[in-house]
Amino acid sequence: MGETKATQKEVRDEWERKLALSAPSRELLEELALACAKEDSPLATFQYAFALSKSSQASELRYAVSILDGLVKDGYEHQVDCMYGSATALYLLGDHKEARARCEAILRTQPSARFAKELHLASIEAEEDKKREQLKTAALGSVGAAAAIGVVAGIASLLLKK
Fold it and tell me: What domains sit in the chain, N to C, each tagged with a CATH number?
C-alpha cells in the first residue's frame, strides 16, 4: 500500500510539472481566440478551449469547461480530448472529484489512455491531500479547544480555592 501511495504522489508531481510547462502564453490564447472568431469551426473552437483548459486564470478555466462540454454535447468527433481538457481545467480549479469522474469516463472507453490514467491518479492524490489537510486543521482546532478548556478550568479552580 505504501508503494502505491508513493507512486500516486510521484505521478501527481510529474503530471503537475508537465502541466506547468504546457501553460499557454497570452499571445497564443489571443491568436487562437481570433482564429476561433474568424473560422467559426468546431476544430478552431476546440483548439482555443483546449489551450484555455491549461490557463492560470479561474475564469478562463471555467470558460474552457463550458466550451468543451458544449462540444461534447454537440457530438464533436474528438470527445475524449474534450473530456480530458475539461478534466484538466477542473483539476486546476480544485474540483478534483469531478476531474476524477471525467477521467474515469474516459478510462471506461479507453482503458489504456495514459494521459487519463495520470490525471486520474493526480486527482485521487489531490483529494487525499485535501482530506489530510482538513483532518490536520480539525485536529489542531481540537487541541486548541482542549487547551482553552484546561486554562479555564485551572483559573476556575484557583478562584474556587480563594
Answer: 2-131 (1.25.40.10)
| pLDDT tens, position by position, 125-148 | 999 887 777 666 665 566 665 666
Q: How many CB atoms lie within 10 A of CB 116?
A: 23
pTM over 0.85: no
Reduced to 3 states, what is the DSSP secondary structure of residue 77? Answer: coil
Range 12-18, long-range pairs (CB < 8 A, 24+ positions): 12/121, 12/122, 12/125, 12/126, 14/118, 15/118, 15/119, 15/121, 15/122, 16/122
Helix extents (H) in the chain: 2-21, 26-39, 42-52, 58-73, 79-92, 96-109, 114-161
